[in-house]
Structure formats: C-alpha cells, structure tokens
Amino acid sequence: MKQLLQVVSLLTILCLGSSVGWAQPLLATASGADAPLALPADRVMRISASSVEFEHHGLLPINDEVECYHHWDEEIFAVPLAAVLVGFEEVVATLFHGEIVRLDVYDPLYIRTMQVAISKDQFRGIEHEQLKFTPTSKLYVEEKGTGRGFVVYAGAEILVYAQDGKLHIVDGEGILWDFDQRVYLWPDLHGLIQINSFQRGTGTKFYPQYRGRFELTMVEPERFLAINEVSLEEYLYQVVPSEMPITWPLEALKAQSVAARTYAVAQVIYSRQGHLGFHVSDSTNSQVYNNQPEAASTTRAIQETAGQILTKEDGTIGSTYYYSTSPRGALTSLAQWRKMDELALEGNSPWYRWQTTFTMTELTRLLSTALPQSVGTITGLMVKERDERGRVTCLGVQGTTGEATLSGELNIRSALKPANLKRVKDTLTNLSLLPSAFFFMESRSNEQGQLQSITFYGGGSGHGLGMSQWGAKGMAEAGLSYLDILGKYYPGTHLITHSEQLRY
User: Fold this and answer.
1) Is 135 a residue whose pLDDT tops 90?
2) 163, 276, 294, 451: which has the fewest C-beta neighbours closer than 10 Å?
3) Which residues are paired to 422 by β-bridges?
4) Sheet holding 176-179, edge to edge
C-alpha cells in the first residue's frame, strides 16, 4: 500500500501539482433521453484538453467540467484530466448530450507499452509522405473499426503513402487499397516489421526492424504518423544499444537500462505528446531508438534489471537524464584543463578534454544569425554567467557596432559549430555544435595588438545533467556495480521493480 500511495502521489504531483480529493463511484445509466450513458471500456489512442480518440469509440469531445477517476482495487481517486494517458486500456467514458462528462480509468498505473513515433530518414521530423514495409513473418493490415484489410506474406513489400486525406497502401500483390481511418500493421508471433524507406546506424547502415505493431494515422492531407507500439521491455532492447556501446561493461549497460526505463516511464506519465498519440519519438528529442541493432550484451543487461525504475523518496519519478562525458568539475583555467588525473574515472573518454580555435572572421559568421541584434564584426567574447556546476549559460559578445549577449547553454553550443576540434588523442572536423558548455576562452592577438582568434578550452560532452555514460563505464571498469553507478548519478532515489503485481 505504501508503494500504491507513492505512485498516486507520482501522478498527482506530475500531472496536477496539487493533491486531489476522494470520490465515490457514480454508475451511469441510459434510463432516459437525458440520462448519462456509460460506454464499454476502451483504449485511449489520443487525448487532448478537448477530445479523446478511443480505439473503438472513435473521437469524442470532452466537456469543460469533465470529472476523472482512477480505480485501484476498491479505492477511487479523483484525478485531473492530465492523468488520463495515451495507452490506458480500461477506460470508461460517460457521455451526456454527446460530450464526455466523466472518465473512469481501471488499472490505470500499470504501464505495459510504449508508443514510439518513428522519424524519417536522418531523424528529420516524424511526419511521413510514404513508407515501405516488409515483414519477417505473416503481416496483417487492417483498418480501424471496419475490419477491411489484407495479409502480407514474409518478404513481400507494401508501400504506404498519404494522398487527399487518405492512406493508400499497395499490397504485396500490387493491389491498391484506400483507407479513411487509422490502419494497424501487426505480424505473427515473434515476427518483425522492417522499414525499407531509410537506413539507420552510425557506422554500418541497416534497414531497421521493429517489434510490436504499427499504427498509421493521418495528420495532414498528405502526411501521416507511423507509431510503433511495443512492450516497455522490448522498447529498451532497441534503445540501450543505440545509446551506449554494446561492448561496454555489463554493469554500465545495466545502469543505462535502468536510466532508460525510468526515463521512458516518466515520459508516459508526463504525456507531452498525448494529443498526437505517442509517448516518445525515436530521436534525441526523447531517447534514440533502433539506431543500432539489438545485441546480446544489452538484452542481457535489460533482462537482469527487468522492470527496475528509480523513484524519489516521496514516490515521484523524474526524467533520469544522461549524457556522454563529464569534465569532472568546472573549467576556468589552463591548469585545471591540463589536469588528466581523473581521465580513467571517465572511462578514458576522448571527450574528457577538447579545444577548438575560431578566427574573428569565423566568429562573426557563426554569431551573426544567433545574436538578437547585429554587433558588426566580432571583437571579443566574455563569459558573463555560469550555472552552479560551471556550465557557461551567458556569453557576452563585443562587436564594432555594439554589444549583445547569447544566453542558454544549448543556444551557445549550437551557435559555435567547430570546423576543427582536438580531443584527447584525436581530431574531429565539422561538428554540429560545441561538445559542451564547460569551457573557458583564451584570446590571441597579433604584434599590433589586434585580436586574431579565440581558443576554447573545454571538457566533457553533452548537457551535463544526470549520468555520465563514460563515467558509468569508468566506474564499471573499476569494479563497481550498476547500483553504485546509479547511486552516484541519481542521489536520493531508490529502485522499485515492475511486475504484474506492482504498478507504476
């Protein structure tokens, strides 16, 4: 019961920000024309402040004064609408004059599946014009509600494209089908669905194969979403190898598994994309998913930590962020930057220390579009603010015609794209952003005292929040367990384990 109360606290704090009261069940009937009507329990596909799309009941409007309740065993909790989430399966909607006036959620906190929006090639957006699919086993294609559809046999290819507000599908025999509503694709048991329209991978490229089923739904007359519905644990099979090298120590992979699982559960609860019908995307906007094939090492790590997530002492859950490499402290001097004593604690990461030099011409070009106003030719930079961990959060820019500030860690990193960056033992070219905001600067002038260039001496890679992945590697190599790793990077948390009996 303690865990139950913790989980209820989780939802109320994250979704409402204040406590909710108790309520008694109200059974709706249809005894008269003006009587409320309780529909059979159904699954939530999409939800917003104004409407809910159910799997079988379709799209229904929500009354402004809708009441929502979570049912757990014999207890009923009044909850905000934000606590009714995409993927909830046992949801009873009560209608009055065609609007939903009440939502009752049964078994609400058991998160079984993830809804993952699949991105286009190079992860450039989630809205598709067309996709090609090939199953590894028999594949069933069916339109929601009508039962119309067909079967695709293993190895055959189907083409899906959007046109004039409809989904058009060319089946494995070349026959064209038109569908007005959501379309489901699901394989036989243990079958996979391969997308042939693009390849994934950071080195060796491959056509990604997905577990679970796909939901195809229109978002524009010429575009649709492809949402992969997959069990929570199987989702991780394709997240962990995409987020951490599969050759790293098992204890590091186990720490990554718990962090990734906790992050996923938090995204379900936050439900930021509920109006679009998914929990997370497959890109760095959430967690990278299926950019590397499944691997035995990462699957083992996931299975050995099955169901484990991190919660705070009050039972709430936050986003367990993680990033590449820590600089092991703030960097403000060359002496600090040159110290390599803790390199092994960061798993000997090549990102531990880096440097890059910009000419004034390069800085003028890079910052011309990033600054809120023009300052002419750049003549100097200065660190104006750092956060409590030492990240630069405000950069002062001096120019021939004025001064300006560039604020925000990501804005600073995105504006300063290094053409050449020296790391520990190697050099990289044409990066899309500065590796981190842990840096200090050193200016160089010519004999006439004119500023020629500015060198950035930095350390670490990523936003610096949560777990350093290379740090986890270093701790694992030093003989520490995944519990030790999680304890260091997520202090004040403890593990709870998901099972059929324990609900989030």
Assistant:
1) yes
2) 163
3) 355, 427
4) 176-179, 166-170, 158-163, 130-135, 193-195, 209-210
